[in-house]
Amino acid sequence: MGQTKCETPYGAWKSPLTAEFVSGSSKRLGGAAVDSDGRLVWLEGRPSEAGRGVLMWEGAQSGSFPEEITPPGFNVRTLVHEYGGGAFAVKRDNVVFSNYADQRLYKQSIRGDRTPLPLTPAYENKAVRYADGIFDGRFNRLIVVREDYRQEGVEPVNDIAAVSLNGEANLEPVSLVKGKDFYMFPRLSPDGQMLAWMEWSHPNMPWDRTSIWVGKVSDDGSITNPVCVAGGDEGVVESASEPQWSPKGDLIFVSDRGNGFWNLYSWSVGGKVQSLCPMEAEFTRPAWIFGISSFGFFGDSGDQIVCAYRQRGVSHLATFDLSSGSLSPVKTRFTDIYNLFVHGNEVYFSAGSSTDTLSIVKVCLAEGKAGAGEDTVLWSSLGIDLEPYKPYFSTPRVVEFATKVEGETAFANFYPPANGYFVAPSRERPPLLVRSHGGPTLEASTTLDPAIQYWTSRGWAFADVNYGGSTGYGRAYRERLNGQWGIVDVNDCCSCAEHLAKIGEVDPKRLCIDGRSAGGYTTMATLVFKDTFSAGASLYGVSDLKCLISDTHKFESRYLDNLLGPEDVLEKNTYDRSPIHFLEKLSCPMILFQGLEDKIVPPNQARMIYEAARMKGVPIALVEYEGEQHGFRKAENIRHSLEQEMTFFARVIGGFEVADDIVPIKIDNFDD
């Protein structure tokens, strides 16, 4: 006989998925590579060490423990574009990495003496930063994207530069390509004679309008004779990305120039751009960070590509034959695949699914070999056996719902409450937490996330909304947010909650919403301008869009031109959609979480809305964390924010008490 479930109200269920479990055991993944022996090197961020980035090296024998490459006192992380990525590069037995504390580049041996040796000069205040490095053996140098803050009072200067690997730390890197506002993806041809790169300028973001260029690497190492491969036609708006050279010397890249989806294209020297595999699928992701890689080459012919693409929120792994034009699926259980690279006939990628946390996975593509076509998990963000926790996991399903625009629909990943040991009273419906993802040009993932399961295992329903403007559905869907930020995202989050309530999945009187960064803005705008939700939580969100324009960093400094424009209405829309100006409309409780070192959404944003709400008499709470930036990295703060958000909602929407032993913080205008 099965175990009898305990009847307990939704939201009050007991769960072993504690906030401490969520915060302390889940590591971040910052990229991966392989050394000369094919052993994996990866970067993991550790909440238990305040988010410190540590390079790890796969054990020499199957089942042996990995080794730490990064010595104490070093933290592998770059601040280019503030969001970073591409913080290290591996070549044979050497790794070059960016150190967070000083943003200098260091060279380190993977084997033997691992003492890091500086490669770049020391500058005050992390004034010069580097990312996306590739080795150039012809000149014994690293080609990088550089961001230079040394000139005060103006925007930092971005360029592509060369860093000597000879160990002369005081040698100034040499600029190779400059003149545009931003650069990414410097990539050398197999013979080292050509350099490809992606560039763009204000007011565009990399998913709006970019171009791909190719230049000749001269005998003195300089870049000459630049040619625009894609994005140079003023009459064609395209986002071109991820240039990579094939073994035969053809350039393969991704662009949305044709059907509005990021598809694969090829270019050969002296030739024209050709579409390779036109389909309504996305073969890349928005370039928020460096180090993105969605395809690679394998096999002896030089004609074989392995790639990952997304359709309607699901990733697929496939091979593509350049000679025949055929696309063939590769079987995998993973539904969220990115940062793919190839070593020999093995493809490595970061991945997850509804039953797998973020992992590094290897698949052998060589037919006839032992293990060919099978998924091999090399690393997991949790690193523990999940079997005991499976009774507490909720499996998401995609929900398509009508938006406020006639004939349009949007999507969400819906997680019903799940706990193998509890059941709610028969007539009760669960409270709902709607999450508006950050970006806003991003998308919600179905990778098993303990932070989501924290809610569902306690009896909450959870909806992760891919509102209009999200990626993964093509340019037209992505551009629904152009000029409409604060309207489309807000309406879609409301429509999702209303749809779930209408079909009986959730309690219409206990609808909550939260979000981080841009999602925090959507949360605040929803609570101020709509009356769908009963309470909300904003984590490092935006309350005054004008302050965001004036205070934010270079990479996003013109982002709002598209989200709130065009220019003739930009100022009006900026004011009209800022929650801070309309707090007289706010009538439901809200909790705010903010890092005090946040350079992307400065702390004064949260303080302004907190003070205004407090003076108005609305139940409000503000939690500030020392040493945190844009996104919480310390385990204790991840735990605290998760516990306090749930406790806050339980107190203000009523109907249950949380089962966990949590000391609640004071809620102004509620506990007085």
TrEMBL record:
<dbReference type="Pfam" id="PF07676">
    <property type="entry name" value="PD40"/>
</dbReference>
<dbReference type="InterPro" id="IPR050585">
    <property type="entry name" value="Xaa-Pro_dipeptidyl-ppase/CocE"/>
</dbReference>
<protein>
    <recommendedName>
        <fullName>Peptidase S9 prolyl oligopeptidase catalytic domain-containing protein</fullName>
    </recommendedName>
</protein>
<dbReference type="InterPro" id="IPR011042">
    <property type="entry name" value="6-blade_b-propeller_TolB-like"/>
</dbReference>
<dbReference type="InterPro" id="IPR029058">
    <property type="entry name" value="AB_hydrolase_fold"/>
</dbReference>
<dbReference type="GO" id="GO:0006508">
    <property type="term" value="P:proteolysis"/>
</dbReference>
<dbReference type="InterPro" id="IPR011659">
    <property type="entry name" value="WD40"/>
</dbReference>
<dbReference type="Pfam" id="PF00326">
    <property type="entry name" value="Peptidase_S9"/>
</dbReference>
<dbReference type="InterPro" id="IPR001375">
    <property type="entry name" value="Peptidase_S9_cat"/>
</dbReference>
<dbReference type="GO" id="GO:0008236">
    <property type="term" value="F:serine-type peptidase activity"/>
</dbReference>
<feature type="domain" description="Peptidase S9 prolyl oligopeptidase catalytic">
    <location>
        <begin position="451"/>
        <end position="654"/>
    </location>
</feature>
